Amino acid sequence: MSESKYIIIGDGAAGATAAENIRDRDDEAEIHVFTDETEPLYNRIMLKTYMKGSLPKQYTRLHDENWYEKRDIELHLDTRVENIDTENKQIEADGTYGYDKCLVATGGSPRKLPQDEGYDNLKYMWTMENAETVKESAEDAEKAAVIGGGLLGIDLAVAYAENDCETHYLIRGENWWSRGLDEEGAEIIHRKLEELGVNVVTNSALESFETEGDEITAVVDENGERYEVDAVAAAIGQKPNSGIIDVEKNESGMIETDEELRTSEKDVYAAGNMVEYVSPVFQRKIVNGAWDHSEAMGEFAGRKMTGEKGEFEFVNTYGVGHFNVQFLSIGATFGQSVSKKYSEDEYRRLFFEDDRLVGAVMIGKTDGQEELRKLIKEGSPVENKEELFE
After folding, report:
1. Average pLDDT value for residue range 207-217
2. Which of 4, 78, 130, 364 has the fewest CB atoms nearer than 10 Å to its CB?
3. Does the model's pTM come out above 0.85?
């Protein structure tokens, strides 16, 4: 192949995987990977175990700088890309770099609480640096509050509780992860959290903080309940890191792509979490932040950028590994749902759209997951929904 120039912005699961796949298909290519982080690729999923104190930091690392050198990929650590000039096909970072194809895999940043005024003991979580500060906070704190009823919030709550910290987990709605679970399924998760020492508080939206100087001393919710704290951690979603490029974006600022992960600008692709793409599987626009999904997007983008054909057809799987029962989510959580609780610790919820299976959430009873994933990808109508519970 000719000596093409590839620029990849972001060294997460999507960016690093794309670089690897480009190199596998183009021995002569010039490949640059830019990241504003100070360390090469690490396993973001394993950060939840690292925060608990049960996994040494070195075991979260996936690549070192030598990995990039061996593959003749130029890695620019601690380097922020300021602008992508799509007209002249170049970027501005620690210098000016031209490209033939560019991948934006910049992900997102934690969304901050409206009540945040820069308090020293208020923590957010996404990067390795964040994980280190949360780990230190959890080890030092005696009382903590965690805010945010999603998949990342549960990791923060368990991190504090497993460091022998009195932990109050404040969830705005009726139950944890209401997008994927009803109250019957969430009861299992709430109970497992309580067994780990987490005080689960539902219907508890944050109202205000009580403070002394730069420290939060108490959290007050809209019901007037007050929780004394040494530390607070929040996971209320992310905002996309998409300001470096002028392409079509959705109302939340996420970069939009087609089913081939191409943006509205020629030769610019986007991948990873906080990217909205057209999914041939789900027949609609999709955003997904799961690790395996971002990795698959990066692999696909690398192939597309080197000239392969096809559409991005992928069904993700996400697990929560904190409990003595397995939690697994496959596919999407939209459409109509039906659920079944088999026993105290076994539950399944299935999501359908126009009689097509689009998603499944399983607790305890996770057998048949590959068959369900295949059904989701095939998109064939399901005649007997009840059979899928068995």
Report:
1. 98
2. 78
3. yes
CB 238 within 8 A of CB 248: no
pLDDT digits over 291-316, tens only?
A: 999 999 999 999 999 999 999 999 99
Q: What is the mean pLDDT of residues 368-389?
A: 93
Q: Which residues pair with 220 in a beta bridge?
A: 208, 226
The answer to whether the beta carbons of residues 274 and 308 sit under 8 Å apart is no
pLDDT digits (tens, 9 = 90+) for 142-174: 999 999 999 999 999 999 999 999 999 999 999
Core vs surface per residue 320-334: b (16+ CB within 10 A) or e:
bebbebebbbbbbbe
Which residues lie across from 352 on neighbouring strands? 336, 357
Going from the N-terminus, what domains does the chain have, and what CATH number goes with each?
A: 5-109+238-305 (3.50.50.60), 112-234 (3.50.50.60), 325-389 (3.30.390.30)
Q: 176 with 149: CB under 8 angstroms? A: yes
Q: How far, in Å, are 8, 19, 43, 226 from residue 14 at the CA level?
A: 10, 9, 12, 41
Instruction: For strands 30-34 and 5-9, give the pairing.
Output: parallel
Asked if residue 117 has pLDDT above 60, the reply is yes
- In degrees, rounded to 5, the angle at the alpha carbon of residue 265 between the alpha carbons of residues 261 and 271 is 30
Report long-range pairs for 314-321 (Cβ below 8 Å, ≥24 apart).
Answer: 314/281, 315/281, 315/373, 315/376, 315/377, 316/288, 316/290, 316/292, 317/290, 317/292, 317/369, 317/373, 318/151, 318/290, 318/291, 318/292, 320/151, 320/154, 321/48, 321/49
Looking at 145-262, list the stretches that DSSP marks H as alpha helix, in order from N- to C-terminal side.
151-161, 183-195
What pLDDT does residue 124 have?
Answer: 98
Average the pLDDT over 275-290 and give the result. Answer: 96
CB 125, CB 233: distance < 8 Å: yes
Residue 146 CB contacts under 8 Å (≥ 6 apart), including other chains: 153, 156, 157, 160, 167, 168, 169, 170, 232, 233, 234, 235
pLDDT score, position 1: 46
Confidence tier at 2 by pLDDT (50, 70, 90): low
Cα 264-127-241 angle, rounded to 5 deg: 25
Which among 279, 289, 339, 338 is positioned nearest to 318, based on CA atoms? Answer: 289
What's the mean pLDDT when you consider all of the chain? 96
Q: Do 172 and 149 meet the contact criterion of CB atoms below 8 Å apart?
A: yes
For the chain, give the longest Cα–Cα distance. Answer: 66
